[in-house]
Write a structure and sequence with these properties.
This protein has eight helices and no strands. It is an all-alpha fold. It is globular.
Length: 220
């Protein structure tokens, strides 16, 4: 049973990582570096859990702050921090699509470890909904983060570079917070809001993939 849960928890993350990795039309990133970033993302779960638990126990957080601060901001900042300091300045980060690969890797590392804990605690019958919602949403937040990180890295104008760097953090925080907010306030009707939100997120994310694919090297 434990093996089944582990496989069910890991499979969606690896499948989505493979999907976005293989969409690189020009020059695939080194597997070693991608896996390194993925593992960093998985390890982020532990400090993030401590920080989130501390804030939850010490502060009186309403639904809005729980969704946008204690979950979204903290998780996306830690993921952004890893990409910025591990991959952003790496010589292998030399194509527009590379930001998406690395950001998706760290996001899915985090989502996969989180999924392992969740399924072990709550049961493998949650695996399908977890794959469709939290795991895939983390991947798409990573796509959007990576797209704007690439725009920042390859931008020559210093002011625009700062703007894209800020967008790479703020837009995923907003989208992730909105996702959480729907879950927290939705009650019986949350799915009717979540379905169009996820469709829109997929359309938005794949649009960024297409744009990144059209800019192979260091050009804007």
């Amino acid at each position: 049973m434990a093996t089944t849960i582990l496989m069910a928890a890991i499979a969606p993350g690896l499948a989505l990582l493979s999907f976005f990795y293989l969409k690189d039309r020009f020059d695939h990133e080194p597997i070693r570096l991608v896996l390194r970033v993925f593992i960093f993302g998985a390890l982020l779960v532990f400090p993030i859990m401590v920080v989130q638990y501390t804030f939850k126990e010490t502060l009186s957080l309403n639904v809005f702050f729980q969704a946008y601060f204690n979950s979204s901001l903290i998780e996306e900042f830690f993921k952004w921090f890893v990409i910025y300091f591990v991959a952003y300045s790496n010589l292998e980060f030399d194509q527009y699509y590379d930001g998406i690969v690395y950001s998706v890797a760290v996001s899915l590392g985090f989502a996969t470890m989180e999924n392992i804990f969740y399924l072990y605690i709550n049961g493998v019958y949650h695996a399908l909904i977890r794959a469709a919602l939290p795991v895939s949403s983390h991947a798409l937040f990573g796509v959007i983060m990576g797209y704007y990180l690439s725009k920042s890295k390859f931008e020559k104008d210093p002011e625009k570079r700062k703007r894209w760097l800020l967008y790479s953090l703020l837009i995923p925080i907003f989208l992730h917070g909105t996702y959480n907010y729907i879950l927290l306030i939705g009650q019986d009707w949350w799915l009717w809001i979540m379905i169009p939100f996820m469709i829109g997120l997929w359309v938005y994310g794949l649009n960024k993939v297409k744009k990144a694919q059209s800019k192979p090297y260091m050009s804007v």
